[in-house]
Amino acid sequence: MRTRVTEMFGIEYPIFAFSHCRDVVAAVSRAGGMGVLGALYFTPEELELELKWIDEHVGGKPYGVDVVMPARYEGADAGDAEELLGRLQGMIPEGHRRFLEDLLAEHGVEPPSEQANRALLGWTDQTARPQVEVALRHPIALLASALGPPPADVVELAHEHGVKVAGLASTARHAQKQVTAGVDIIVAQGTEAGGHTGEVSTMVLIPEVVDAVGADTVVLAAGGIGRGRQVAAGLALGAEGVWTGSIWLTVDEADTPERAMPKLLKATSRDTVRSRAWTGKPARFLKTAWTDAWESEKSPGTLPMPMQFMLVADALPRIARSGDGELVTFPVGQIVGSMNQVKPAAQVVYDLIEEYVEAVERLSALTEAE
After folding, report:
1. How many whole angstroms separate alpha carbon 59 and alpha carbon 57?
2. Which residues pair with 44 in a beta bridge?
3. For 329-362, how does the pLDDT look when each residue is reduced to its tens digit (9 = 90+)?
4. Once rounded to an integer, what is the mean pLDDT over residues 172-181?
5. What is residue 117's three-state secondary structure?
6. Which of 18-32, 61-75, 131-145, 257-271 has the lowest mean pLDDT?
7. Could you read off the pLDDT of 95-133 as tens digits, one per residue?
8. pLDDT digit string, tens, across residues 305-315
9. For residues 182 and 50, what is the distance between their CA atoms, to the nearest angstrom?
């Protein structure tokens, strides 16, 4: 497979794999695609250790890092991260705290033994910039921005390090803003995707974005892509590669929470929902008692980003460890209905390519002269 992105990065297949697990990132890159590490949940010190490990295990293959630098969020005008954290903690209503603790108690989730104190992480410009600095000290090939166009100075800094920049977009208008910000690659992400996603389906979105950004900008197709036929469809719609995420949650190398894995393997494509119950912005999750509770009549409503995550951050590991399991959820796309078998990451890459080739050959046969 040869497209502009395979030439741009010197990779064998135009398959990008987003994961918070370093083992998955390295495995996909070694298999000929490009792994992209989600930096959000790591402190700068932890991210340094993760990237050092990838450097040592990626076999010299290229990989990327994904950060979250939303253009709009509560407290964006605050000073440093410590000031921001203090201000936002004071803005969380007591009613929301009571609702959360009552919900946890109802499902038998044990009280915290200690505060995890990971409430803010990389959800803001102030906290993401140290992650960018760490990433650019390593031989990464790509820096991706997951929410909104990255700041112009960050794009410039990445380019000074010889690093390409990608921006995720869920509408043609968002894609044009990303191009204006100077990104090299647009990840056009349909509503089928896991995590933060918009309302337009992948089939409709990809050609809209390709037409909107013009021939000079590379587009990757994202959202509901986990089969080789879907890779072929993305390229047929004008993209030059695919951005995948959910399918790597059920590979051998994944560090998916033990209580979430069976739910993912059992789920159908109808078992996900877009919810603000984790981050404050619409994101697709496995539909469980957690997402239902925040949409119920008893719910006080969700808080704006990043306050919603600050509210629930310490509760999430408690849910993963104890309780009846009904609250356990996880960010995942509608492709979860096809994720019913655990395989090595490399095998998933090869399966994608094999089915892609079969799809292209079948289409080619349709156009051959008799």
Report:
1. 6
2. none
3. 999 999 999 999 999 999 999 999 999 999 999 9
4. 94
5. coil
6. 61-75
7. 999 999 999 999 999 987 665 555 555 556 777 889 999
8. 888 998 998 89
9. 28
Q: Which residues pair with 18 in a beta bridge?
A: 36
Q: Are 287 and 271 in contact (CB under 8 A)?
A: yes
Return d(Cα 339, Cα 260) in angstroms, integer.
Answer: 13
Virtual torsion, Cα 295, 286, 150, 65, nearest 10 deg: 150
Note the pLDDT tens digit of each residue in 233-260.
999 999 999 999 999 999 999 999 999 9
How far is the C-alpha of 24 from the C-alpha of 6, rounded, in Å?
A: 20
Helix (H) or strand (E) holding 317: helix 315-321
DSSP-derived secondary structure for 203-259: HHHHHHHHHHH-TTSEEEEESS--SHHHHHHHHHTT-SSEEE-GGGGGBTT----TT
Task: Give the pLDDT band (50/70/90) at residue 73.
Answer: very low
**Distance in angstroms (rounded) separating the CA atoms of residues 227 and 231:** 7
Task: Say if CB 270 and CB 37 are below 8 A apart.
Answer: no
Cβ–Cβ under 8 Å, residues 170 and 191: yes
d(CA 86, CA 84): 6
Cα–Cα distances (Å) from 28 to 66, 165, 218, 363, in that order, read 15, 19, 21, 27
Q: How far is CA 214 from the centre of its chain?
A: 25
Cα-Cα-Cα-Cα dihedral of 21, 34, 282, 158, to 10°?
Answer: 100
Query: Residue 202, SS3?
Result: helix
